[in-house]
Structure formats: C-alpha cells, structure tokens
Amino acid sequence: MRLVVDLNKCQGYAQCAFLAPDVFAMHGEETLVYSPRAQEEQRERLARAVAACPVQAITADGLDGPSGPAGEAAREAADGR
After folding, report:
1. Where is coiled-coil annotated (predicted)?
2. C-beta atoms surrounding 37 within 10 Å
C-alpha cells in the first residue's frame, strides 16, 4: 500500500502514530515521519489510523481492497464504533 500524508494539513495530533506505530512516528512535538510503503500486515492498523486522523490528512492507495476484516475495521473506525 502506498501512503501519502498532506503535511500542510497535518496538525500533529499523532493519532496515526498511536494506532500504527510501525508506519507513523512523531519526530519532536510537531513533525510527522512515516513510511510511504506499508506492509500488508499493517492493513488493519493503517485503516484505523487513516479513519482516526481528525483533519483527514492521510490517504492510502490499496486500502479499499476487497471487503474483510480490514475494510470492516476502517468502516467501524469511521463510524466511531
């Protein structure tokens, strides 16, 4: 999966770093660093991180694959379940 974070939108809330620490990390108090290529094993955590971003700064190509646990996790996170 390919990730893109709009760093102009990102406000450093760090929800993504909390939910997917193998992909996202905070460098200092305000700078987000991330791996632009996430492993398939990170799909569920990544779906939650994308859905939890309060400013919707994260997009993930390949996350909207076939339905299953990851797709359900993303829908539940988006619905607040």
Report:
1. none
2. 9
